[in-house]
Amino acid sequence: EVQVVESGGGTVQPGSSLRLSCATSGFIFSDTAFRWVRQAPGKELEWVAHIDKYGTTRYTDAVRGRFTVSRDNAKATLFQQLNSLKTEDTARYYCKRYISDQLGPGTQVTVSS
User: Cα(96)–Cα(91) distance, rounded to whole angstroms?
Assistant: First the structure.
């Protein structure tokens, strides 16, 4: 059974940092590309970052230079470092396999002064 479980969210002030984690199981992690996506209240799901199986990354314009996605194949875990957070980054964050629409429970990130 494929499982993805996100963690690491919280409520922080603008300019702060958070590190999100995504623990996975049920498939060959090292052969899999992933995306971090997010959904803000009242908005559609938005892709944020992409990492392929080789570790090559891409980011949406809104987060490029502030967010960094990485992976630990030995631990089957995906990470996303969120720096210089802005109020508009407030959303529920999910990791997903690139080939699948399945989402985990997500982790809430709230940026507020």
Answer: 16
Per DSSP bridges, beta strands 18-25 and 77-82 are: antiparallel
Per-residue pLDDT tens, the chain, 113 aa: give them. 999 999 999 999 999 999 999 999 999 999 999 999 999 999 999 999 999 999 999 999 999 999 999 999 999 999 999 999 999 999 999 999 999 999 999 999 999 99
* Residue 90, token pair as written in the block: 């407030």
What are the tokens at 1? 């059974």
**Rounded Cα distance, 17 and 50, in Å:** 19
Query: Torsions phi, psi of 52, nearest 5?
Result: -90, 180
Residue 82, H or E segment = strand 77-82
Provide the strand spans (E) within 17-85: 18-25, 34-39, 46-51, 57-59, 67-72, 77-82
Nearest to 9 by CA among 75, 103, 85: 85
SS3 40: coil
Q: Are 103 and 76 in contact (CB under 8 A)?
A: no
